[in-house]
Write a structure and sequence with these properties.
Layout: E1 2-7, E2 21-24, H1 25-28, H2 33-45, E3 52-57, H3 63-76, E4 81-89, H4 92-101, E5 107-110, E6 122-128, H5 137-147, E7 152-157, E8 167-171, E9 174-179, H6 183-192, H7 195-203, E10 208-211, H8 217-228, E11 236-237, H9 258-264, E12 272-276, E13 283-287, E14 290-292, H10 294-303, E15 318-321, H11 327-335, E16 339-342, H12 349-354, E17 360-363, E18 367-370, H13 378-392, H14 396-407, E19 409-420, H15 422-434, H16 436-439, E20 443-444, E21 447-454, E22 457-458, E23 465-466, E24 471-475, E25 480-485, E26 493-503, H17 513-516, H18 518-528, H19 530-534, E27 541-542
Parallel strand pairs: 3-4, 3-5, 4-9, 10-11, 10-12, 15-16, 15-17
Antiparallel strand pairs: 1-7, 2-6, 5-6, 8-9, 12-13, 13-14, 17-18, 19-26, 19-27, 20-21, 21-24, 22-23, 24-25, 25-26
Helix pairs in contact: 2-3, 2-5, 7-13, 10-11
Bound molecules: alpha-D-glucose-1-phosphate-6-vanadate and cobalt (II) ion.
Length: 543
């Protein structure tokens, strides 16, 4: 076996987005493409010789091939050991857990999260640092800079390593250890929640349905929900991970998790339903005929946190991404703890958690998590909910309605316009940025605009500044309209519009969000000139 240095040409498009580098599979399959990015990671992170790395992915198409390449490159770049999930599989939160538990020098996670998988679909790669969380903006930028000037990479000439049986083997001088993908994670969950109380709830006739969407969380959910907690066999649906997610879109929302939605809104619906995404870090929570918005879910977990053993001493603080509704802020205020507003993407929460400033974090995009790892965590959120349900012995709907009655309701919705021509989408953002002065002070019916800005964030821990994180139109009554271009799409541009209005009046809490937000939606379309600039009159997805 010998180490080969391969000359290569740089690619100009390896800029990591919100959550790593995401491209179509054929792009990754180009000669040297993946290799260049991996070498750019290794050149940027300066791992000490003999360091340990974690490698795993969500099992989508090209996962196995990519892992073999990464292993051989890690061996050629001086790593001493790599921990790999069996079959090359690790959910994103499990990878974060393994990095932390085994004190490794970070890890490489292969996933395009909630995007479809298959030969013509999406693939992704990102580096998570030693704290188990996504690389900071600074490291991400360094990797991109390297990728533009790279001229060669190092790889070990060796046969593929078998990843299907637990145990160790060697690759040159590097040790490869295939680990059980589920056990470290499941043990961590057992240490956080009251498994006895949840077990008692599930044996009392309380029925649950978890939709793994043929993605990575199937084995985790089966082990934990059906195995350790005794949920009825069949409580986990679509539980076998498939390379193409069964042709589905592994995004747990009301549009794409339709199998589960039908069950939860049908006759004889179970008491609790949940789904997670391709790499297991997102979650959707449903009650019988009832949907919990992710922003409300974060607020509610915070308000009830002390019911779970891990959080019984209370929370240090809460963080939410800027477009996420301010429901969590109200809880933070009531608990007299700080609430931080960060740009979109989990990488911004890591510093706050490492500094002990926050315990819970969340995003409107079906992401919730805590400082138990440094990624959002789908199954964790499900177990947290079950723990609360076991303690409160009320329905999901009643718990949410009581929450609104106490704190008020933040009506919330997100409109996604996918695969827009990039120029048109940029044009909308540009137009909005140029309209700040003319919009300020303007009134539309009962809504009057207080200020407009482009969200900028200064990290309170390392002082780094992230600019242009989304256009905000802020109204005098606290309502908000936010516009952002997605950083995870792989086709054209995706424009997201986020709408939020606060309602203190309990007699209006039963309203459908689309009804309550009708005027704001009209204002949002009107001031952005979205229709005339993009030709779209309907969003692709409404959540
Ligand atoms: C989307 C979400 C964002 C999330 C990101 C990664 O990003 O809006 O909240 O952090 O996906 O989620 P964007 O840039 O497309 O809006 V996942 O489950 O990749 O890790
Ligand atoms: Co994900």
């Amino acid at each position: 076996m010998s180490i080969r240095t391969v000359s290569t040409q740089a690619f100009s498009d390896q800029k990591p987005g919100t959550s790593g580098l995401r491209k179509k599979v054929p792009v990754f399959q180009q000669a040297n493409y993946l290799e260049n990015f991996v070498q750019s990671i290794f050149d940027s992170i300066e791992a000490p010789k003999g360091a340990t790395l974690v490698v795993g992915g969500d099992g989508r198409y090209y996962n196995r091939e990519a892992i073999q390449i990464i292993l051989k490159m890690a061996a050629a770049n001086g790593f001493g050991k790599v921990l790999v999930g069996r079959g090359g599989i690790l959910s994103t939160p499990a990878a974060s857990c393994v990095i932390r538990k085994h004190n490794t020098f970070g890890g490489i996670i292969l996933s395009a999260s909630h995007n479809p998988g298959g030969p013509k679909e999406d693939f992704g790669i990102k580096y998570n640092r030693t704290n188990g969380g996504p690389a900071t903006e600074t490291v991400t930028e360094a990797i991109f800079t390297k990728s533009k000037t790279i001229t060669s990479y190092r790889i070990l000439d060796a046969a593929d390593v078998s990843l299907d049986a637990l145990g160790s083997s060697t690759l040159g001088e590097m040790k490869v250890e295939v680990i059980d993908a589920v056990s470290d994670y499941a043990e961590l969950m057992e240490s956080l929640f009251d498994f006895n109380a949840i077990r008692a709830l599930l044996s009392s006739g309380f029925r649950i349905k978890f939709d793994a969407m043929h993605a990575v969380n199937g084995p985790y959910a089966k082990d934990i929900l059906e195995g350790r907690l005794g949920a009825a066999a069949g409580s986990v649906m679509n539980g076998i991970p498939l390379e193409d997610f069964g042709g589905g879109h592994p995004d747990p929302n009301l549009t794409y998790a339709h199998d589960l939605v039908e069950i939860m809104y049908g006759d004889n619906a179970p008491d609790f339903g949940a789904a997670s995404d391709g790499d297991g870090d997102r979650n959707m929570i449903l009650g019988k005929h009832f949907f919990v918005t992710p922003s409300d879910s974060l607020a509610l977990l915070a308000a009830n946190a002390t019911l779970a053993p891990a959080y019984k001493k209370g929370l240090a603080g809460i963080a939410r991404s800027m477009p996420t509704s301010a429901a969590a802020d109200r809880v933070a205020h009531a608990l007299n703890i700080p609430c931080f507003e960060t740009p979109t993407g989990w990488k911004f929460f890591g510093n706050l958690m490492d500094a002990g400033k926050v315990t819970l974090c969340g995003e409107e995009s079906f992401g919730t998590g805590s400082d138990h790892v440094r990624e959002k965590d789908g199954l964790w959120a499900v177990l947290f909910w079950l723990n609360i349900l076991a303690a409160r012995k009320q329905s999901v709907e009643n718990i949410v309605r009581e929450h609104w009655a106490k704190y008020g309701r933040n009506f919330y919705s997100r409109y996604d316009y996918e695969a827009l021509p990039t120029e048109a989408a940029n044009g909308v953002m540009q137009h909005l940025r140029e309209s700040f002065t003319s919009l300020t002070g303007k009134s539309f019916g009962k809504y009057s605009i207080k200020t407009c800005d482009d969200f900028s964030y200064t990290d309170p821990v390392d002082g780094s500044v992230s600019k242009n994180q989304g256009v905000r139109i802020l109204f005098s009554d606290g309502s908000r309209i936010i516009y952002r271009l997605s950083g995870t799409g792989t086709e054209g541009a995706t424009l997201r519009i986020y709408l939020e209005a606060f309602e203190a009046d309990v007699s209006r809490h039963h309203l459908d969000a689309q009804v309550a937000l009708k005027e704001l939606i009209e204002i949002a379309l009107n001031v952005s000139e979205l229709k005339s600039r993009t030709g779209r009159d309907k969003p692709t997805v409404i959540t």
